[in-house]
Design goal:
Order of helices and strands of chain B: EHEEEEEEEEHEEHEEEEHHHHHHHHHHHH
Shape of chain B: elongated
Strand content of chain B: 15-25%
EC number (chain B): 6.3.5.-
Number of strands of chain A: 2
Strand order of the largest sheet of chain B: 5-6-9-1-10-11-12-13
Helix content of chain A: 40-55%
Keywords (chain B): ATP-binding, Ligase, Nucleotide-binding, Protein biosynthesis, Transferase
GO molecular function (chain B): asparaginyl-tRNA synthase (glutamine-hydrolyzing) activity; ATP binding; glutaminyl-tRNA synthase (glutamine-hydrolyzing) activity; transferase activity
Oligomer: heterodimer
Largest sheet of chain B: 8 strands, mixed
Enzyme class (chain B): ligase
Distance between the termini of chain B: 67 Å
Family (chain B): Belongs to the GatB/GatE family. GatB subfamily.
Number of helices of chain A: 3
Number of strands of chain B: 15
Strand order of the largest sheet of chain A: 1-2
Shape of chain A: flat
Structural class of chain B: alpha+beta
Number of domains of chain B: 3
Strand content of chain A: 5-15%
Order of helices and strands of chain A: HHHEE
Number of helices of chain B: 15
Radius of gyration of chain A: 23 Å
Radius of gyration of chain B: 30 Å
Chain lengths: 95, 485
């Protein structure tokens, strides 16, 4: 097993996910098997290979700096759980 | 023990583009909350970023201005963390391959020396939205305004090359001067256009290893930066001298309460799990583009300072002040060109005008006294029509919109009397009606006589209602009194 239970717990905290006691063993095992597969890939000899960030050699297209977006606040806020005076409302987040 | 302070800065500069870095929503400041946040800024499902060409160009211009290597292939990455003002759950930023590599910035210190501060790199990224915790909000809630979300930033990261507050502030001001001079940032600190994160550590004097550093985030004025560094240095030294150790942490400084404290809520989130953003391809910048931008780069503050010294015979110090802000420099040059008295143009721009602007909280581009008006007044000082003292009255009237210098001089009857015969009569009259003063002058020794001249001057200026040319009066007075000795 490559991944430890406590690492799963930490990842869950960072990702703001709650994984209950029952599933944590299962998740640990399944993620470990994914990592086993990755470990297999690592056995390939890549010493002389240059790293690439993308499989294709294409460049990002750039957009002209022109405002084309208008005010859509009402549409967006119509589907928000809570709004007030134009603000999106969230649970208090300062301690 | 003697301690040495080590400071490095991370500076966030908002780029002066019309639109966001990844969307075509406006970036203008002060709009109603969430009226400038589009589907991309809100991270609606299915949206994809569209990179703003101007933001890329501005970043390259900064790189060129500091003689940095330009990343011809740069990569955007995702920095993952959770916060309500970051709708995507990650900030799109650069890490492994930033657009601007190593460079350097020269700073000038009060003692006249210069020092080079190395830039580690500068990268493009998006700003987060704004969280609002105070004001009229439903109980137990915070508000989120996403107008700022996606505003393009460059984050400039320095090496830990600064050794005291003076150097850190000089560096911050120099960056401000550079980014405003090349027009990539409006420089409005009160609107958050430039924000500083300060990394501070201390070490025993003479040590070559770095101490553990803390990072104080989000300082938006030079004053707060000074205070935050001063407090943090004190705190670290006290801690170590009391047998403790400095913990690497992120701190927040409150400029109002003057207290800094460690951030608590995001501590665990420091594991950002960076990875290349699959939504954005590598940004490839051609040599052509770089050369085009290099040629279009306006004069940089250092070059302008040197030119002011050369062309206008200003002191290095004066030239430095005038050239640090592009608008001030342009204003000065316009005054100097119209008045052909650069030294006076410099003094009035840095003195009376700058004080009046500060007092009225206006920028030089909003000055009620234009460069032409100021130049017109300087011409009247230069041709002896008005004295320096009268000029202050004229300036005040121009500030109030009462017309140009000639109109005001005429309307207020401020014309300086420079006619020799008239002045001689004035001086003679004053000497005649003050025989006691004259006696006293003659009886005094040479050192005291100099001081007593002021008394006569006062009388004569009063008699002329301030309109006598003081230099000429002084000359005539000396001559007449010497004749009596």
């Amino acid at each position: 097993m490559i991944i430890e239970r406590h690492e799963i717990e930490k990842l869950a905290t960072l990702s703001r996910l709650s994984i209950d006691e029952k599933t944590i063993t299962d998740v640990t095992e399944r993620l470990s098997s994914v990592l086993d597969l990755v470990a297999q890939l690592q056995s390939a000899d890549t010493v002389s290979a240059q790293g690439i960030f993308r499989p294709f050699q294409v460049a990002q297209r750039l957009r002209a700096d022109e405002v084309t977006e208008g005010n859509h606040r009402d549409e967006f806020q119509a589907i928000a759980p809570a709004t007030d005076n134009g603000l999106f409302i969230v649970p208090k987040m300062i301690d | 023990m003697n301690w040495e302070t080590v400071i490095g800065l991370e500076v966030h500069v908002q780029l002066a583009t019309k639109t966001k870095i990844f969307s075509a929503a406006s970036t203008s400041f002060g709009a109603e909350p969430n009226t400038q946040a589009c589907a991309i800024d809100l991270a609606m499902p299915g949206t994809l970023p569209a990179l703003n060409e101007q933001a890329v160009h501005y970043a390259i211009m900064f790189g060129l201005a500091i003689n940095a290597e330009i990343g011809k292939i740069s990569i955007f990455e995702r920095k993952n963390y959770f916060y309500p003002d970051l709708p995507k759950g990650y900030q799109t930023t650069q890490l492994e391959k930033p657009i601007v590599g190593r460079g350097e910035v020269a700073i000038q210190l009060a003692d006249g020396s210069t020092k080079s501060i190395r830039i580690h790199h500068a990268h493009l990224e998006e700003d987060a939205g704004k969280s609002i915790h105070e004001g009229d909000l439903p109980h137990g809630s915070s508000g989120v305004d996403l107008n700022r979300a996606g505003t393009p930033l460059i984050e400039i990261v320095s090496e830990p090359d600064m050794r005291n507050i003076e150097e850190a502030v000089a560096f911050a001001k120099k960056l401000h001067s550079i980014v405003t001079s090349i027009g990539i940032c409006d420089g409005k600190m009160s609107q958050g256009s430039m924000r500083f994160d300060v990394n501070v550590s201390v070490r025993p004097m003479g040590s070559t290893t770095l101490g553990t550093r803390t990072e104080t985030k989000n300082l938006n004025s030079y004053k707060f930066m000074e205070e935050a560094i001063e407090k943090e240095v004190e705190r670290q030294i006290d801690l170590i001298e009391d047998g403790g150790t400095v913990k690497q942490e992120t701190r927040l400084y409150n400029g109002e309460t003057k207290v800094s404290k460690a951030m608590r809520s995001k501590e665990e989130a420091n594991d950002y799990r960076y990875f290349p953003c699959p939504d954005l391809l590598p940004v490839i910048v051609s040599d052509d583009t770089i050369e085009k931008l290099r040629r279009a780069l306006p004069e940089l503050p250092d070059a302008r300072q040197a030119r002011f010294v050369e062309q206008y015979a200003l002191s290095k110090y004066d030239a430095g002040i005038l050239s640090s802000d592009a608008n001030t420099a342009n204003f000065f040059e316009s005054v100097a060109a119209n008045a052909s008295h650069p030294k006076m143009a410099a003094n009035w721009t840095m003195g009376e005008l700058s004080a009046a602007l500060n007092h009225a909280d206006l920028s030089i581009t909003e000055s009620p006294v234009s460069a032409e008006l100021l130049a017109g007044m300087i011409l009247r000082i230069a041709d002896n029509s008005i004295s320096g003292k009268m000029a202050k009255q004229v300036f005040e009237a121009m500030w109030q919109g009462e017309g140009n210098a000639d109109e005001i001089i005429e309307a207020k009857g401020l014309k300086q009397v420079s006619d020799n015969a008239a002045l001689e009569k004035m001086v003679s009259d004053v000497l005649e009606v003050n025989p006691a003063m004259v006696e006293d002058f003659i009886a005094s020794d040479e050192n005291k006589r100099k001081k007593k001249l002021g008394g006569f001057m006062g009388q004569i200026m009063k008699a002329s209602r301030g309109q006598a040319n003081p230099q000429q009066v002084n000359q005539i007075l000396l001559q007449k009194l010497n004749e009596l000795l």
